[in-house]
Amino acid sequence: MVLSRRRPAGRGAAVGRGQTGVAGRRTAIRRRQLRLEWLEPRALLAAAEPDELFAREVFPGGGTYSDFAAADVNRDGHSDLIAVNGESPGEISVLLGDGAGHFQPRAVYAAGKYPQSVVAADLNGDSFVDIVAANIGSFNQGYERTVSVRLGRGDGTFLAETKLDTGGRPRAVTVADFTGDGKADILTVNTDDTSLGSSYSLLAGNGDGTFAARVDRKLNFAPEDVAAGDLNGDGRQDLVIGRGQAVTVLLGQGGGAYAAGVDGATAA
């Protein structure tokens, strides 16, 4: 069983992410223990300090990064980095890898205000890696209710941004076949600033990189993170939603519907 996962803003470095793809396709999405900083030139530590687990390599970046993913965006067999900077105006940075742990200077793509989460997946069935970033906005500059979608060309570059409406202030985003039709869907968890309160939004995919209007469902807690996977072997995508020191599991019922949540503690 494989779960897709993101790292919430302000927390430690993420561990691996796997994305199982749709309708028999598999897109390898992996994360590495790397830290992006504004630094020039690139600094490479030849070996880790005695109390460190990994050697550290630092790459030039922009702003304060809130989330990142790794995927082979140019189909050369090497993992590349995708990061969102969590500022306004928001940016998506793409750093192409050489397979030896080194990366080219970043290419920058616009996103919405204060993007907090990013996922890499094939949204239109062309086997190219596409990007979805969740834009949360801010109190001073206005909350966002969108995700930014950029379809990949397969050569490491991406098409123009398409913005899709979600519930208010999407904290995290994931991609999977939630409706069971073999097409990639987008799901966000939201700390909404409207009367709905916290929610999740499902945007059903049409299989060509376009999506139906969102369907919102209320959550009775403030979500911080989300992962998707088949937790009980019934062939349906289930949700694991992080919420402070606990997680809530929502089992898929088919067609994008979910049963009542089951809570579990993650810390004393």
Architecture overview:
- It contains no helices and 21 strands.
- It has strands at residues 35-37, 43-44, 57-60, 67-71, 80-84, 91-95, 107-110, 115-121, 130-138, 142-150, 162-165, 170-176, 185-190, 199-203, 215-218, 225-229, 238-243, 246-250, 252-254, 257-258, 262-265.
- The protein is 0% helix and 39% strand.
- It has 268 residues and is mostly beta strands.
- A hairpin with an 8-residue loop joins β8 and β9 (130-138).
- The strands form six sheets. Strands 4-5-6-7 form a four-stranded antiparallel sheet, with no helix packed on it.
Give a concise summary.
Helix content is 0%, strand content 39%. By secondary structure, it is mainly beta.
